[in-house]
Predict the 3D structure of the following.
Amino acid sequence: MCYGLFTVKSAYYLALSNVASDSASSSVSSGEVWKKLWNLPVLPKLKHFIWKCCSDALAVRSLLVKRNIVSNGKCPLCNSADETVIHALFHCNFAADVWLASSFRLCTQSLAGSSFKDMFMNFLKLAPSFPDKVDAIIQWVTLVWQIWKVRNQFIFQHANLSLYDTIQSFYRGVQEGRLGISGEKSKPLDPPVPLNIVLPATNTCRYKIYTNGVWNSVSCLGGRGVMVRNYKGKFVVAKCKHGCSDSAMAMEAEAIRDALLLARSIKLDCISIFSDCKTLIAHLINAHSSLDWASVMVVSDIRELVGEFSSVVFMYIPKMLNKEAHVLARGASLLSISSVWWVNPPSFVVNPSLLKRRDFAACFE
Ligand SMILES: [Zn+2]
């Protein structure tokens, strides 16, 4: 069984941007929508949810303002736009990251649908272009439902807003949906399909890979961040990973190992790897400075991996010039997420204040 990873260049991504700008979609009659909706191959609870979204009955702030239930219509998550159905499920920073990290790999900024009903109908029109139409519908519907659920758990129950957990729950939900539809016992859950994006051959160019690790000496937990830019500074890919380590230096070394593994998986070569850990870089360059025990093993992995590239250069970079990798590592640590971004850097790298806990707290005031 395959989750059908729909790449960024998939039919959905391209066609949806086109369909969304086609105003004809807004002329879809309600009757047609309901007919399609009741015939959907998804669980009843999901049909009900989609029905609420389509008929503007979802309890978003903009609706509650209209009904004089609340006075502030702003999105409690980002506080930067009114909380409409479209905003909550597609355009809010968190929702956008979930779509990007999902099997759809969809950049929702390119979507221009003016209502949920439009977006839903546009998707149904395109569903036959997916390898498995029924499965694509189950995934789409499960994803919007999952985003709504996680938003509310965060807003009302102060639950952790985790991109990683959301995606995991999404895959579980898809599995449940398939079980519900087929009525049979299904195979065990497949892990998400790993990305296999091969970038055009650019071996003469140099990629700059910024790495950072953050580590808590009490819990031993933390995060690693890797930001890849090309020699012109253009964004290529960002990755973060949540995890534990035995020392701060080991966490920094693991970030470098992540960078090499990522570069190898997408066939980047002629790379420069930056870290603000002076001792570690000095060691990688000349092996003279001493390492703590926890870092030694990771460094041995790094040396082995380096042999697979035609050119890897390690460079020290001051902390203040390594902010993106630091924010990625911090995001991984604070949000307990592990993820990869291919189209744009994640919302919290663009706007690091999203990671400030007092900002999250302010959402509840
Ligand atoms: Zn928002």
Summary: Residues 288 and 339 are 34 Å apart (CA to CA). Residues 75, 77-78, 81, 87, 92 surround zinc ion (CB under 6 Å). The chain has a mean pLDDT of 80. The chain is about 45% helix and 10% strand.
